Q: What sequence folds into this?
């Protein structure tokens, strides 16, 4: 994003929006190391225009994903308000996997640390706090294994999401997540 406070010209704003949309598509399909030239090409602009709007890969990644990470944290906050703590946790895990199973870039953003992306990192902290509260809420209800830790939920989500990448069956990750959630229940 430009560092000065002047609004962008209409054509510059349109190019920025095209670049962000193209980045979401290309990073989503190929991951965060996808060629920036491909993003510029898909947006219909020159690579110089991309670098003019986004001087680093990190600034482009942040523009493409910060809102989605905020949305993910909001899904967790909604899950915290569920009447049934277990169902809230299960819904959060399912919705997170739904988002990540079709978006390789989002998965990489969620599991990695990205220097130069303060908005993403702040949203991830918020999502982690929500995840921890979800786990504690289910534990307090007595419906979660006593040895289950908040950090186990992201690992389960990562495992289920990985199943989506390697299985030709589009629903394999859903079954896998179901098996994992069943294993997390208190007996």
A:
């Amino acid at each position: 994003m430009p560092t000065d406070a002047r609004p962008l010209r209409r054509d510059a704003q349109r190019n920025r929006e095209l670049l962000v949309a193209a980045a979401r598509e290309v990073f989503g399909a190929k991951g965060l190391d996808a060629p920036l030239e491909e993003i510029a090409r898909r947006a219909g602009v020159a690579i110089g225009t991309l670098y003019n709007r986004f001087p680093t890969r990190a600034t482009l990644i942040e523009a493409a994903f910060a809102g989605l990470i905020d949305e993910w944290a909001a899904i967790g906050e909604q899950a915290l308000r569920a009447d049934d703590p277990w169902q809230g946790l299960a819904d959060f895990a399912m919705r997170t996997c739904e988002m990540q199973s079709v978006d390789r870039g989002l998965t990489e953003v969620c599991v990695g640390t990205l220097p130069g992306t303060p908005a993403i990192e702040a949203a991830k902290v918020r999502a982690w706090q929500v995840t921890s509260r979800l786990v504690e809420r289910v534990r307090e209800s007595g419906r979660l294994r006593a040895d289950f830790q908040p950090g186990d939920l992201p690992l389960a989500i990562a495992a289920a999401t990985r199943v989506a990448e390697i299985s030709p069956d589009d629903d394999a990750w859903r079954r896998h997540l179901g098996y994992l959630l069943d294993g997390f229940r208190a007996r």
Q: What stands out?
A: The longest helix spans residues 57-80.
